[in-house]
Amino acid sequence: MQFFKFFIISLISFFSFQASVFGKEIIISSKPINSFEGAKFGEKTDGLIWRGGLVLTSDVEEFGGLSGITFTGFNNQVAIVSDIGNFFSGEIIYDKKGAPLSFDNFSISAIKNSKGNNLPRKFAKDAEAIDLILRNGLPVAVRVGFENLTRVADFKLTNGVPMGAAKEVAIPDALSNERTNGSLEALCIAPKSSPVAGSTLLITERMRDGKNIAAFMLGNKDKGSFAIKKTLGMNPTDCAFLENGDLLILERGTSFLSFTMQLRLIDANDVQPNAILKGKSILNAAGSEIDNMEGLAVHKDASGNERITIISDDNFNKWEKTLLLQFSFE
To answer: Which of 43, 212, 250, 265 would you call most buried, defined as having the most Cβ atoms within 10 angstroms of its Cβ?
Structure first.
């Protein structure tokens, strides 16, 4: 009897441990978006091809504020950070033509500090960007950027889900000393094809380098400051690299009580310390088709083509939406 009691307690403890490790599973409702700026699936919009989208909702109070997204290399599994200190994980399900249809196995877990405890206060919880860390071509961790209490930290991946204690990453004093919500907004890691392979780009939202947006590069050989050419009425919200080393920068603004969005493409060879990055616009949108677009990721779809994913932060406002939009080059 004593053994049986011990077995039951151990079983309960095991499943409680599993739930605490992998987070709380939540239900996400997904409404497909069939067109964008007049383009239907597979049709051109500006310099890209529309590949479908979703409006995401949930009854869970903590759902929202989605600020950064990355694909973790496990099927179509994504890791998302929110600006109230949570990780979201889930798998995007696609329909037969390749448009996003819904989310499966969606869970939420609290982002931890370096001691493995929940982040203590709102000022420390404002996660804004996330990217995947590869070692020997395998996904092993994610790197997360925070504003307000400005910092960068790594979190290990288990079955594609970020978890565990934060491992702090050293960043320039000029950035860590900036304690506002205009500090670190975008983070992305250069692929092996890039001239600055392995370097982490840290792009601010409103810090200035002269007339331009201040940015920083972390790397063994390539490190230092650089800048993003300011777009009138817009500020950077995220960045992501293409497989060939070219860089995408997502920007957001407001106009006539609605949001505006721009996606810029920058040649790989232009991405260097001390450079001022300008590039060219490949996507512009405004009005009801978009929202507060903050997160950007690139991954390979089932056909082997690079697909661009953009998500919005609803700021936990009823009049804003959580959107997931996808595009490709072909």
So the answer is: 250
